[in-house]
């Protein structure tokens, strides 16, 4: 048996970030055994990330604050250890791997940690080649980091971590920006690392890919571990029991589509004819795309990372120009440069769409003439779980809170078409449901909403229709009023990118 001795222990550990009024960890008692696969879950702000920052030694050196009690990792207190030295034995993989890259070439990035620790060149070459071979990712050798998809960048982060052969892997929301097919590839990597005897700690909201893999689940709330379940006990929970714990389902088969009230179709509101697009000197990404859409629809754009979903959304919003294509809105031909008059695009990177110095003013911006604007702002803040942050500066919010704020601005927009790019990336169950309610609110108000997403649960709650993109075309167009069509969408998303 691998799990024989404690490799990490929390002994009445509490931590309060500098400048914060409350503790993010409160009297945590926890033992993690060598070779154990542990999943930490719970609502945003429950303390998951803070706990992982203690394990990988980013607390208290990099993230300063008051630490009481003890956290012992590999036999040494984190109060005395050095994060740089700890990096030899503890690999960290973050939600956005770009935040941890130091080079622009995939092979150089995989070699970087070894070079940083002064490992001889011949040994580095051996380890880098071994990493690409052992994880079956030789197609990622010597690639431009900026040309890789989100999933490919996440794989490079894994490769870079394995070259030092660390005892412990710490992952913080690794699935947030990945399509389901790539997430299942990440599962295969984690399974191989577990089989090799590594200790693995994953902080995560999306749990389905950890089904049957994790030894233990910790559910956190308000800085404390409120429940501990074995993998077998977690698998026995029903969807209702998971939702009562404010968690996403562990088993994708438990997701049920929620029927949307039919909104009367009259005339086609949006038409796209023969849209094609390619980046400079690159193969065609979108080929002769044509579609028709109606007000009061929510259309999910789905497909693997890099298939052109976001590109299609940006073309529709007038943010980038396509090589060819015609657009008709409400029966009138609209030039590409005028599409932005009709379409509101919400980016995945919320920072680029925040302009004022308070949450309330962000929603009032450009909307002060709307009747009862203050009442509508209060309603939206409540719907999106932002009412307690109404006076905060937008840049003081968490990533998920910023994301919901930009969606609130879209709700107030008078533009008839809304495009949301990965609106639930990294969101817990409660906040994903809040965004789903916002989307349904806009649909019921007669807007045409496009959601670019990999989130099956979100699709089940919101979409009235799904467009399946693959190899530059719309592979299928499904009305989401039947469970059978939802099964087709689920199978497509799980199998996308496969042979």
> What's the N-to-C terminus distance?
37 Å
What's the shape? globular
Mean pLDDT: 90
Low-confidence stretches: none
Helix content: 25-40%
Structural class: alpha/beta
Mind telling me the C-alpha Rg? 23 Å
Beta-strand portion reads 15-25%
Number of H/I helices: 15
Please summarize the sheet with the most strands.
6 strands, mixed
Number of strands: 20
How do the strands line up in the largest sheet? 6-7-8-3-9-10
Membrane topology: Peripheral membrane protein
GO molecular function, one term: ATP binding
GO cellular component, one term: ATP-binding cassette (ABC) transporter complex
Pfam family, one: ABC_tran
Describe what this molecule looks like in 3D:
It is a single chain. By secondary structure, the chain is α/β, with parallel strands linked by helices. The chain is 30% helix and 24% strand. It has 15 helices and 20 strands. It has helices spanning 48-55, 83-86, 106-116, 121-134, 150-162, 180-195, 231-235, 239-244, 309-316, 359-364, 373-383, 399-412, 429-444, 456-462, 483-495, and strands spanning 6-17, 25-33, 37-42, 65-73, 76-77, 90-93, 168-172, 199-203, 216-221, 224-230, 270-277, 286-293, 298-302, 324-329, 332-333, 343-346, 417-421, 448-452, 465-470, 473-479. A six-stranded mixed beta sheet has the order 6-7-8-3-9-10, with helices on both faces. Helix 3 (106-116) packs across helix 4, helix 3 runs parallel beside helix 5 and helix 12 (399-412) packs parallel to helix 13. The chain starts with 5 loop residues before the first strand and ends with a helix. The mean pLDDT is 90.
